[in-house]
Every structure is written in C-alpha cells, then in structure tokens.
C-alpha cells in the first residue's frame, strides 16, 4: 500500500498515519520528499487493505492511497517511479553509466588478485569482483581462502581504489564480510535463504541479489523484498543464467529478464555473462546483448591465466579478451543512451 499525503502535512500527521498502519500489522516506511511525504506499507493482511484504505482516505491530510496487488511491495515499480541509483564509494549503479564489475571468480593468491585488479582497472572496470568464500556443488572443489581472501580484496581496493563486491554465504559472517566488502553478493543457491536475506537487510551495505537457478522473476523480486523490508534500500538484482534443458552452456542466460525486471521494479539490474554461459568464448557476445537490453552493470570474470585457475577457468576471460570486450560495448552503450 502506498499512502500519499498532502504537501502541507505535518510531521505529527505523518506519525498518525504511520501509527494507524503499524497497528494493523504493516511495516511502515515513510519517504519524505522535497514537496510531499509518501508512506509505503507492507506486510499487512490483503483482506484488510480495502478497509484500511477507506479509513485512511477519511483523514483530511491523506491525498490518495494506492493498493499494490503484487506479493512484493517495496521492490515494485509502483512504490518508486524513478529508478533507484545506488552509490558505492562514488560509483553510481542504476544511473546513466553502465558499471563494469570485473575480476577473478575466486581469490587464489595475492599476486593473482593484484595483477587482475590492476589490469581490469586499466581497461575500464570501476568495481573489483572476487570470491573469498565460494559455494561449490562438490565438497572437493576449492572453497575459497575465507578471511585471508577478504584481506587481499581490501588490499587490492586500497591500491587501485576499486570498490569490492564479494559473496557472503553464511548469516554468521555478514558483519565480518561488511568490514571488507562494499557490495555483498547473495549467490544463486542462497536466493531463498531467508535468514541470510533478513541478515543482509539489517545492514546498509549494498546487496547484489543473484537470481536463483530455477527461480521465476516474481520469486526473485520477493527475495529482494525480504532485504528491503528489513530497512536496507540498497538492493540490486543480478541475472546470472537459469537452469534449462540445454547442456552446451552451463546455464541459459535470460536476457529477457533484464527489461522484465526493470518494468516490474525500480531496482538496478546486473548481468553476469560468465556464470550465465560457463564459456569464455560466449561472454563477449552476451555482454553486447546485455548492454543493448538495458543492463545497469556487468559482472565479468577475468583471470590472467584461466588455464591455471583453481575454479571455473573455462568461463573466465583473459585481460586481452576483456580489452576487446570493452571496446565493443562502448558504442552499444552510446547507442542506447548510456556511457561506460
């Protein structure tokens, strides 16, 4: 439910309307703009909404009430008409620029990480990606360096100035990862780990929420709602490929999800073509497509020596291929009114 108050409404009236909604079980989020205040209310009983709406409209200082019939409220386009822009250490995600997040799938050593960080920055990346904790289907696969990997990411940020995005897998580690990372990544396997979503909702560190490998777009948005309802407004969605019957690619990258998510939601949308295909030879083409359909950022795996990678070597591009990729997507960004 979205409650729009008259421009001349007072703080006391905002509090009155908020208390009215809270008493009926809603989580209340007042938004004070330059000209008027809007109250977003989520979590109340659907059957109660029509009656509550009528009672609110009886208040002289309430201008309009909009009922939202979707199971996600705060993530919905109706909640916020303008796209959300998230600032990460001076990098705006969701604005005019297409943000490039690049780096190795997994932090393997100080030398590997710093070499990659220097190269991706030189070639135009503005955010450094790298996994300190890595979820793996097999328990025998490399699981990441843990806290030592986090420290190396912080060192790379100190040297290059690039903000860091890295995955958090365990709700018990959220506070720790926040000490080193600028964006928390929630991986596909944890998209519906509701305890973890609530925990990252309790902080204000931006969150990159990857789509579950078999998740509908609506389920993806409802997962974002778990974070938003806890008070963290800094959520971005990441399309990373879904599981289909196809076996040539690791996943099927659903580029149609980008304009669909932007039509349904105000949140920034990122595309991960590396996980989306599992093949470095396809990353370049899908980056072009992602920019063309409106992606706000690309999350690209880059490794100086993919053949030596401890994890996911076949999907990581070399710095040379990354350079060509960047040259190709710049004119596409300009053609759709964006810049890199």
From TrEMBL:
Start and end residues of each DAHP synthase ferredoxin-like domain: 1-68
One function term, GO molecular function aspect: aldehyde-lyase activity
Residue ranges that the Swiss-Prot or TrEMBL entry lists as coiled coil: none
Organism: uncultured Armatimonadetes bacterium
Native organism taxonomy: Bacteria, Bacillati, Armatimonadota, environmental samples
Pfam families linked to this entry: DAHP_snth_FXD (PF18152), DAHP_synth_1 (PF00793)
Keywords: Transferase
Domain DAHP synthetase I/KDSA span(s) in chain numbering: 90-328
The enzyme's E.C. designation: 2.5.1.54
GO biological process, one term: aromatic amino acid family biosynthetic process
Protein name, UniProt field: 2-keto-3-deoxy-D-arabino-heptulosonate-7-phosphat e synthase I beta
SUPFAM superfamilies from the UniProt entry: Aldolase (SSF51569)
InterPro entries found in the cross-reference section: Aldolase_TIM, Class-I_DAHP_synthase, DAHP1/KDSA, DAHP_snth_FXD, DAHP_syn_2
């Amino acid at each position: 439910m979205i409650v729009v108050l008259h421009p001349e409404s007072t703080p006391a009236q905002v509090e009155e309307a908020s208390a009215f909604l809270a008493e009926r079980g809603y989580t209340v989020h007042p938004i004070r703009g330059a000209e008027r205040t809007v109250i977003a209310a989520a979590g109340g009983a659907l059957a109660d909404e029509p009656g509550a709406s009528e009672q609110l409209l009886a208040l002289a200082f309430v201008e309009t009430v909009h009922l939202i019939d979707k199971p996600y409220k705060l993530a919905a386009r109706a909640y916020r008409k303008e796209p959300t822009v998230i600032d990460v250490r001076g990098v705006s995600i969701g604005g005019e620029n297409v943000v490039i997040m690049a780096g190795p799938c997994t932090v393997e050593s100080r030398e590997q990480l710093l070499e990659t960080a220097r190269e991706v920055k030189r070639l135009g990346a503005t955010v450094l990606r790298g996994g300190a904790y890595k979820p793996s289907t097999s328990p025998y696969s490399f699981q990441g360096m843990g806290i030592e990997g986090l420290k190396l990411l912080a060192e790379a940020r100190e040297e290059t100035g690039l903000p860091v995005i890295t995955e958090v897998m365990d709700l018990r580690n959220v506070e720790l990862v926040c000490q080193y990372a600028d964006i928390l990544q929630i991986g596909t396997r944890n998209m519906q780990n509701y305890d973890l979503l609530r925990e990252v909702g309790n902080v204000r560190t931006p969150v990159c929420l990857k789509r579950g490998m078999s998740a509908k777009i609506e389920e993806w948005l409802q997962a974002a709602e778990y974070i938003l309802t806890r008070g963290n407004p800094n959520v971005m969605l990441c399309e990373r490929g879904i599981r289909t019957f196809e076996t040539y690619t690791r996943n099927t990258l659903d580029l149609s999800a980008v304009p669909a998510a932007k039509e349904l939601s105000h949140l920034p949308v990122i595309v991960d073509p590396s996980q989306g295909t599992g093949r470095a030879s396809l990353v370049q083409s899908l980056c072009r497509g992602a920019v063309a359909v409106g992606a706000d950022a690309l999350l690209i795996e880059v490794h100086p020596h993919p053949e030596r990678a401890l994890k996911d070597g076949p999907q990581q591009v070399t710095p040379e291929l990354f350079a060509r990729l960047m040259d190709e997507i710049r004119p596409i960004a300009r053609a759709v009114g964006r810049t890199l």
